[in-house]
Amino acid sequence: MESSKTGRRPGTPQTKEAILDAAIASFVESGYAATTIRGVARAADVDPALVMHFFGSKDGLFDAALRGAMPVRELAVALSGDVSSLGARLTRRYLEVWESPETGPRIRAIVGSIASTPAAAQIMRDFMSGELATPLAKSLPGDQPERRAILAAAQLMGMAFARYLLAVEPMASMTTDELVISVGPSVQRYLTGDLG
Amino acid sequence: MESSKTGRRPGTPQTKEAILDAAIASFVESGYAATTIRGVARAADVDPALVMHFFGSKDGLFDAALRGAMPVRELAVALSGDVSSLGARLTRRYLEVWESPETGPRIRAIVGSIASTPAAAQIMRDFMSGELATPLAKSLPGDQPERRAILAAAQLMGMAFARYLLAVEPMASMTTDELVISVGPSVQRYLTGDLG
DNA sequence: AGATGAATTCAACGTGGTTGAATAGCCCCC
DNA sequence: GGGGGCTATTCAACCACGTTGAATTCATCT
Predict the structure, then answer these.
(1) Per the database record, which ranges form the HTH tetR-type domain (chains A, B) (predicted)?
(2) B6 is a domain residue
(3) Do A23 and A103 sit in the same domain of this protein?
(4) For residue B1, what pLDDT is reported?
(5) DSSP 8-class letter at A83
(6) Boundary (domain end) residue, out of B27, B48, B65
């Protein structure tokens, strides 16, 4: 399957997919800084210039690889149910998403790269304000639903940041249940409580 | 003032300070990734190898430049006063610290580099668990003061992250007073309220 | 004065993102 | 059915970066 001469490799136009798969794996396992275009190219058995050709830049590769990796549907299931217990459901679902071996590593990769590349910040911004806050705001009864949704999202993000990225004690060793009990009511207050 | 020959430049042993100043300026203005050791050396009119000699690595340079840049004293002033309004005072002071042209840019540089270099994460961890949570916990009356302090710190960090680093709407355009009114009670609940 | 050690520079290595030109295969149109 | 053009693909090169090792200069101690 190896190509020795120059020019287009015949037969397989799924090369782009292979590059994307390698990129996702590398970004997730090693983060943005430690991921190299040359390494991704090597893993996909391809020339580095081809990665550039397809995705323009390392930033573009990150965007293509991890946009759409935010677990929108996984969180949406928390929306259905009694609004008075929405805070606890959302908090628990959020924690599960961060701990799931499926979705967790991808979120870590995105959030952890926010400062390294504009793509990560944009993905996160789109997620918080479009994919999470908008549907959440629609299921809220009170005034200023967008503001409520963003305040809740910020609270959840701070919790996850301290727990999973910084791993600061004693937050890192609290159980999921303890966190739901501690943080859930604050989220609930943002969603349906009195904001002043 | 330029040196043309090799060897130690006579007279000025404050070169280390000059390098540190250039490093702080660059990390603060451009972040970790965009700061280059060669650029810092150029700004300090020094050879890149000298930066390595003094600080060991880019990571070491970051640590030396920004450790101690967290505004511990600025936040400590919020501790004195009535405990029942501590949440609001802390929230307001925290926002002011992020917005001050003195302390704000440095915090942004540190928090924004958490994923890029271990030094930033360690600085932040030391700050949250040592310099902020410990004195905060000491002035709390209830049970589990460390846990309360960290929960409050995580809430504040999430707020700042969404507002100043992501700049997601409508959080970015809320006023300080609105945020104090909205977030302060949640912080207060962590500090003195019922955690379940 | 000589030795010691720190400050400082120079040149080099390896790696990384990115670029420009070149080639090879495919499809469309006349 | 043959030529033009588009796309996939590679190669070689550029420049900047972090880091290293040896060399040189200076100050200080003995």
Answers:
(1) 13-73
(2) no
(3) no
(4) 35
(5) G
(6) B65
Residues of A in contact with B166 (CB under 8 A): 114, 121, 124-125, 128
Range of the domain at B94: 72-192
Q: Is B90 on the interface with A (CB under 8 A)?
A: no
Choose the closest CB to B33 out of A116, A151, A166.
A116
CATH number, domain of B30, equals: 1.10.10.60
Q: pTM here?
A: 0.91
Instruction: Assess whether A49 (CB) lies less than 7 A from strand C.
Output: yes
Instruction: Name the nt closest to A37 by C-alpha to C1'.
Output: C17
